[in-house]
Known about the structure:
By secondary structure, this protein is an alpha/beta fold. Helix content is 47%, strand content 13%. The protein has 15 helices and 11 strands. The strands form 3 sheets. The protein has a 6-stranded parallel β-sheet, with helices on both faces. Strands 9-10-11 form a 3-stranded mixed β-sheet. Strands 1-2 form a two-stranded antiparallel ribbon. Helix 11 (215-243) crosses helix 14 (284-300), helix 11 (215-243) crosses helix 15 (306-323) and helix 14 (284-300) runs antiparallel to helix 15 (306-323).
Amino acid sequence: MEPSRHRRAADVTNSPSVSWGPRHLRVSGASWVRAATSTREQEFDVMTDKLTVSVLGTGIMGAAMARNLAKAGHTVRAWNRTRAKAQPLAADGAFVADSPAEAVEGADVVLTMLYDGPATLEVMREAAPGLRSGAVWMQSTTAGIDGIAALVALADEHGLVFYDAPVLGTRQPAEAGQLTVLAAGPAEGREKVTPVFDAVGARTVWTGEDGGAGSATRLKLVANSWVLAVTNAAGEVLALSKALDVDPQRFFEVIDGGPLDMGYLRAKTGLVLEDRLSPAAFAVSTAAKDARLIVEAGERHGVQLDVATASAQRFERATAQGHGDEDMAAAYFASFEEGAAE
């Protein structure tokens, strides 16, 4: 993340001069202190980049996002239904709450990174007693098109400013603060969510000013349809290689350096070949959920998605075989009868 363009009063009060952009002060010496406190807007400009952020859901993605928020200097209040998954965040300076309502107390921004839309709705209802009217809700769960409407209704009920903000990326980019944030929400008030986006992501792609329209979620489903298709294609390449007694490295030699070569292909096949499926960068069970949401979205809009349908079935078979908590590359095992891939 780039360093903040704002500077605290303690950093600049004794400086011989201060020269900021057109929205900021251009004064010298001790007169800065008087000028900086002359209006609430100027004081707000200096301090808005440090927020109290509640993170509800601290699994693979949520925990990484919470850590990066704490590293960026924000006050983090975290909650997870299984407290053991949230507790390690205390070492990073986060307050670990016992309930969603406790977690959201005093929050400027509530970030939800839960399993799906219904789970998010349930947790936010539990959080309701602690919610502050006017707080921002950054909804980052892949909730699906149908799930967004119910979340927006809840936001309106409690006076929350809703941002549809799913993210692209898995464990490694999440831990590095290099996610891509897909965001939709009102232009007015973005000064509250922008520091959060900057802490967790490398870039933000704005898709609209109405979070309730679900434009960011729709883009996320399109992107995920490609990711899941490539993941399953990578698994089938290895499965067919095994069945035909072909060394997978010969396949990589054939495509090496050409338009069919992909870093993602090599990364996912590497996890299988080197038996590095745990810990998951993105779990099989979560991929199955996302694949179902993609299929449902297609059906709702009159599109038959055969590859996405097959992807959902493969992820579900791999989950049934006991690979649900492994990386989604473990869908490879769905090509075999249970135990036959060994």
